[in-house]
Amino acid sequence: MVFRIIRLQEDSALIWIIATISVCLLVASILPFISSPHGVFRTFEFPRMQLALLAVALIATTFVFLAHSSAAIWIMSVLLLVLLIQLSKIVRFTPIWPRRSVDFKGDPNSAPCVRLMVCNVKQSNTNVHRVCDLIEQHDPDIAVFVETDQRWIEALKDSAGAYKFQLAQPMDNTYGMFLISKLRLLDHQTRFLLNEEVPSFDAMVEV
């Protein structure tokens, strides 16, 4: 009888721990569907593999230690939903997802290349000269700067003078973008795919 009571208490504690973590995982999986630029919602776009692996581990733990519990069914249902949400996003980066690019058949060492630079300037950063030095040092064909407000775009104008094609979307919410290119940009437009506070550039590059 004493052993039975202790076992029930241990199971109850484990159920509450797993149930709490499961609900947190579900919330973390749902938050990215909310079209808000705030970091609370966008942060969970990134650790999808980790969330999926944690869901698998909790499913296994529930199956092994709590299979006899009536709470196991809804806990595993929540975890399976988490796993389904995460896998629906992860699968797009696996070999089974159709690719939109073709394999290169030539010699990569002799192929013409496009030099691309992507730089997060950090909007509050004041070390503009360091970014300008990077542009001069690497001389990219295309450079994209993110977190650029109007101050940053004005500060980069001199260094970007050699780049004939430019797309600028300054924002004060750290989602601004500035693209400069030596290559011709065709059919370019600024799009707001998530919401009106998060811009994206869409363009064809003539090589």
Secondary structure blueprint with pairings:
Blueprint: H1 2-30, H2 39-42, H3 48-65, H4 72-90, E1 116-120, H5 128-138, E2 142-146, H6 150-156, E3 165-169, E4 177-181, E5 184-191, E6 200-206
Parallel strand pairs: 1-2
Antiparallel strand pairs: 2-4, 3-4, 5-6
How much of the polypeptide forms β-strand, as a percent range? 15-25%
Overall pLDDT confidence: 90
- Number of alpha- plus pi-helical segments: 6
Largest sheet: 4 strands, mixed
What general outline do the C-alpha atoms trace?
A: elongated
H-E string: HHHHEHEHEEEE
CA(first)-CA(last) distance: 79 Å
Kindly name the structural category.
Answer: alpha+beta
What Rg is obtained from the alpha carbons, in whole angstroms? 25 Å
Strand order of the largest sheet: 1-2-4-3
E-strand count = 6
Residue stretches low in confidence (pLDDT < 50, at least 5 long) are: 1-9
Helix content: 40-55%
What is the gist of this entry?
The protein is an alpha+beta fold and 207 residues long.
Characteristic key phrases:
207 residues; four-stranded mixed β-sheet; elongated; alpha+beta; two-stranded antiparallel sheet; 6 strands; 17% strand
